[in-house]
Design goal:
Oligomer: single chain
Mean pLDDT: 96
Order of helices and strands: EHEEHEHEEEEEEHEHEHEEEEEEHEHEEH
Shape: globular
CATH class of the largest domain: Alpha Beta
Helix content: 10-25%
Number of strands: 21
Radius of gyration: 21 Å
CATH superfamily of the largest domain: FAD/NAD(P)-binding domain
CATH architecture of the largest domain: 3-Layer(bba) Sandwich
CATH topology of the largest domain: FAD/NAD(P)-binding domain
Length: about 400
């Protein structure tokens, strides 16, 4: 019989949420017996991929070895979670090992469903198709942009939810600015095709973005969902939310944000809600049916933007409430849905959108953050990565 290893707290996922939670749980006076289950060799700072795709940074600057970011007091189980048995407090891995726990934290991120767009798989990086949405494909965006000599540049926003909902338009703004700089703007059409009904969900920032759409001559196609590409013809096929085909759009550059969903092993588990996400209370991050299970980050059902900024606010709440439950105390920490979207609108330009569950601005600075500013661009490009590597992942921010 295979030995079952036990840990006080078992964390599934070594992304921003998982590492930050581990850092905080091992930083107290009473460090816990803690393990992280994560199969990857590398940890990525994904918010910088927009600027990699725009040619500002090399992609290698966005990753570090997983072994360097996992807290030294934490055991690293380099394996993939396969099944959950919450009734018996057990997790089984893809290799067949079983682990038990007193507390389980699920922070497994989000799944990119490239296969849901017919004709896309195998064609990223060729025939004008590119994407910032993975480490493997992000360089294709800059390569495609540099080769672009005019024509139609099309940028896709798929059905929600997706990680970093601002990213599909951030690269559009960068590309449009690049075309201006290269003297190609008059030879180009820039299209934004979105499943949504507007350019942004929060009214304060939407007004500014709508003005920029008009000023910079962006052609928008709202309630258009990319369902197929025909790479040899360079045609993108769109449907409306009802599933009716509404447009076949020729392109010379096509930036694809893939459809996304909860990881399959979560969808199939007892932890999931009807949508496939880990079913937690939106304020406490505690599971609605299994009180010794918590979840944060992209795989959780928290109805907020799936961003690193949201994770930064979710994590302290989760840690405080897990420790309170462990001590037999009430769960008093509350997450208000805070999220931030640093909307890059060009080289050296950024609108810092910050808001809560109700779409109310929750801004950090004493000026109008709905205006484009170089200072906020510098914060995203240089300040936030440092805060991430040396603050957030260390449990200090």
């Amino acid at each position: 019989m295979t030995e079952i290893r036990h840990h006080d707290v078992l964390i599934i996922g070594g992304g921003a949420a998982g590492i930050s939670i581990a850092a905080r749980l091992t930083d107290g006076a009473d460090p816990l017996d803690l393990a992280i289950m994560e199969p990857a060799d590398w940890h990525y700072y994904q918010p910088l991929w927009t600027l990699v795709g725009g040619g500002v940074f090399e992609r290698e600057s966005t990753r570090r070895p997983m072994a360097q970011v996992i807290p030294p007091e934490t055991r690293w189980i380099q394996d993939r979670a396969a099944t959950f048995d919450p009734e018996n407090n057990r997790v089984t891995t893809a290799s067949g090992d079983t682990y038990s726990y007193n507390y389980l934290v699920v922070a497994a991120g989000i799944q990119l469903d490239w296969h849901k767009i017919d004709g896309l798989e195998g064609n990223i990086g060729r025939q004008g198709i590119c994407s910032n949405y993975s480490y493997e494909t992000v360089e294709s965006t800059w390569d495609t942009l540099r080769e672009f000599r005019g024509g139609k540049a099309v940028f896709i926003y798929p059905r929600n939810p997706i990680k970093c909902a601002g990213a599909p338009q951030k690269i559009m703004w960068l590309a449009e600015h690049y075309l201006q700089r290269q003297g190609l703007r008059d030879k180009s059409e820039v299209h934004f095709a979105s499943s949504g009904s507007s350019i942004f969900g929060v009214a304060k920032y939407r007004k500014t973005l709508e003005r920029l759409v008009e000023e910079r001559d962006i052609i928008t196609h709202f309630e258009h969902i990319l369902t197929a590409v025909r790479p040899e013809e360079k045609i993108a096929v769109f449907e409306n939310p009802e599933g009716d085909q509404v447009l076949e759009l020729p392109y010379d550059m096509l930036h694809v944000t893939p459809p996304q969903s909860a990881p399959d092993f979560i969808k199939k588990s007892p932890l999931a809600n009807e949508g496939g996400w880990v079913e937690v209370d939106k304020y406490t991050t505690q599971h609605l049916r299994y009180p010794n299970i918590f979840s944060a980050g992209d795989c959780s059902s928290l109805p907020t933007s799936k961003t690193g900024a949201a994770v930064r606010k979710e994590v302290p709440v989760l840690v405080d409430n897990l420790l309170a439950h462990r001590a037999g105390k009430p769960l008093t920490a509350r997450y208000d849905g805070y999220a931030s979207c640093p909307l890059v609108t060009g080289y050296g330009r950024l609108i810092l959108a910050e808001f809560d569950y109700d779409g109310n601005p929750a801004e950090s600075f004493p000026f109008d953050q709905a205006q484009e500013r170089y200072s906020m661009y510098a914060l995203k490009a240089y300040g936030l990565p440092e805060m991430y590597w040396h603050g957030m992942l260390k449990g200090r921010a």
